[in-house]
Automatic annotation (TrEMBL):
UniProt GO molecular function: glycerophosphodiester phosphodiesterase activity
Similarity comment text for this entry: Belongs to the glycerophosphoryl diester phosphodiesterase family.
UniProt domain GP-PDE: residue ranges: 227-481
Main location class: membrane
Source organism: Eudyptula minor (Little blue penguin)
Domain of life: Eukaryota
Record's bilayer topology term: Multi-pass membrane protein
Source species taxonomy: Eukaryota, Metazoa, Chordata, Craniata, Vertebrata
Keyword list, A-Z: Glycoprotein, Hydrolase, Membrane, Transmembrane, Transmembrane helix
Protein name: Glycerophosphoinositol inositolphosphodiesterase GDPD2
Length: 515
């Protein structure tokens, strides 16, 4: 078989060597009479499936980056080891997708050059391992982090129109090697099967926009107001979480609410702390090594004031933004101590922002005394009660009676026949659809969703009309003046028609030109 035009013999030889892992010149290949067998076709199909499988995992890996800090915290609690595992995830995924993509490109080029697809056993083994690793990753995601499947569905509202264009483009390019293979193969059954499958896939893709629903497909004048920002433990990308420095950094980011977590010391002083243990965010292992594993509530306030609540931030670098801190900020970080709720309320009052908090741990035997101590500090602080947002469900009725001015925020959706209508809800962003957000907005219910860090997710929720979002990345979302994209429905329809028509003409040209 003569080499197709534009495919020189040295290039064909090089492609064969990379794909087959053996030095066979195109001339020798012809002499030996090597041909692509059914087994070789099966391995090419497997290679194509592995590439698509890995590509889907890459998409998931990018989506779950929004929540990956939670995974880092989980690993630390289990293993006492801090590492930014998102880097490990991205590097491993990049290696797998690059390997399968390179092999696929080699195979397609060999097909265009009329060379046999003799995949070496080493590549076969590595492809099987790649498929197993990705399958294990998906299984782990489904078992330990099932809510990320809902995150993926939300992400399709942001990426659906662009994924459609990309997939149509990729399938259109695939028409060239497919046409080459069909015209060269002698099996009529195989030709008909491949053409039917390809045509079916393309018809589905051409009609896919009918099923794509995105809140950002709307007219400019329909765009809801930008959601307010709630600082998750302050501004944890710019300062150690749950410290006064973090609160003031959040104020600089124009947040309207400082979200935090409150615990009560052994001598009855409410203070800011998220974890039940002090090991992650203080130097308790150095100061009180024999008590490091104890619950935070077993320490008295004098002991807690001896702990450094900032240096860990520079040592562990929980976010990449730590590297860009100024010398002044680094010095200020080392001076941070665990703040009391009284100090946080005073700072919030001076900064004119609200404060929203959970009271932990809710299963503690002295929880009612924790509620009483917290309420006493709030009432004595002088902060306007409407600036306090109360999250804990325990003893909520008591709180309403003693401090009716405090805003009650519920961590659940409204119920049918609700005796007292909800005014504020605080939920994970995966738990509310765009339709529910719009309905709550129409009913004058304020909806805050957490934790929203990525601009694509913030854009979707913005278009949906959410009231506010809790975020680690207030410095990023503050700068967004507009959703990442916003398309009028008429413009989207025009793009859809142009892309599908261009794809159809390109496929038709490929089959006619190579005939």
């Amino acid at each position: 078989m003569a080499d197709p035009p534009g495919c020189c013999r040295p290039c064909a030889t090089c492609l064969l060597c990379l794909y087959s892992c053996q030095w066979i010149t195109a001339k020798k290949e012809k002499r030996k009479g090597l041909r692509t067998t059914k087994c070789d076709c099966s391995w090419f199909l497997f290679l194509f499936c592995v590439f698509l499988f890995t590509l889907v995992w890459l998409y998931f890996a990018i989506i779950i980056l929004n929540d990956f800090h939670n995974f880092n915290e989980f690993i630390f609690k289990q293993r006492k080891l801090w590492l930014d595992w998102s880097l490990v995830l991205l590097i491993a995924t990049a290696v797998l997708i690059t390997y399968s993509a390179v092999l696929l490109v080699l195979a397609l080029c060999l097909q265009l050059c009329g060379q046999p697809l003799k995949l070496h056993w080493l590549h076969k083994t590595l492809l099987i391992l790649t498929a197993l690793v990705v399958a294990a990753a998906f299984a782990g995601l489904g078992i330990k982090w099932a809510e990320e499947w809902r995150s993926a569905r939300i992400s399709l509202q942001a990426t659906g129109p662009f994924l459609h264009i990309g997939i149509v483009g990729g399938m259109t390019l695939l028409a060239w090697p497919l046409a080459t293979f069909i015209y060269r193969t002698r099996s009529t059954g195989l030709k008909v099967f491949l053409l039917l499958v390809y045509c079916a896939v393309m018809i589905v893709l051409y009609l896919a926009p009918l099923g794509i629903a995105s809140p950002c497909i709307m007219e400019e004048n329909q765009l809801p107001p930008k959601p307010a920002l709630v600082g998750h433990r302050g501004a944890p990308m710019l300062a150690p979480e749950n410290t006064l420095m973090s609160l003031y950094k959040a104020v600089d980011c124009d947040v309207q609410v400082f979200e935090t977590d409150v615990m009560v010391s052994a001598d009855g002083v409410p203070f800011l702390m998220h974890d039940e243990e002090l090991t992650r965010t203080t130097n308790v292992q150095a100061v009180f090594p024999e008590r490091a594993a104890l619950n935070s509530t077993t320490f008295n306030w004098t002991d807690l004031q001896q702990l450094d609540a900032g240096s860990w931030f520079l040592e562990r670098r929980p976010f990449p933004t730590v590297q860009s801190l100024s010398a002044g900020d680094r010095y200020q970080v080392t001076k941070q101590r665990i703040p009391s709720l009284e100090q946080a309320l005073e700072a919030a009052k001076q900064s004119n922002i609200s404060i929203m908090f959970d009271l932990r741990p809710e299963n503690h035997s002295d929880y009612q005394s924790f509620v009483n101590a917290t309420l006493e500090v709030i009432l004595q602080s002088g902060i306007p009660l409407q600036q306090v947002l109360w999250l804990p469900d325990g003893f909520r009725e008591q709180v309403k009676q003693q401090a009716p001015g405090i805003q009650q925020v519920y961590g659940r959706k409204r119920l049918q026949n609700e005796k007292e209508p909800l005014l504020h809800v605080n939920l994970p962003y995966q738990d509310m659809s765009s339709e529910e957000i719009r309905q709550y907005h129409q009913d004058n219910i304020s909806v805050n969703l957490y934790v929203v860090n990525q601009p694509w997710l913030f854009s979707v929720l913005w278009c949906s009309g959410v009231s506010s979002v809790t975020t680690n990345a207030c410095q990023v979302l503050k700068e967004m003046k507009h959703p990442i994209w916003l398309l009028p429905s008429s413009t989207y329809l025009m793009i859809w028609i142009v892309v599908d028509c261009a794809s159809f003409l390109a496929i038709l040209w490929a089959f006619l030109l190579l005939k």
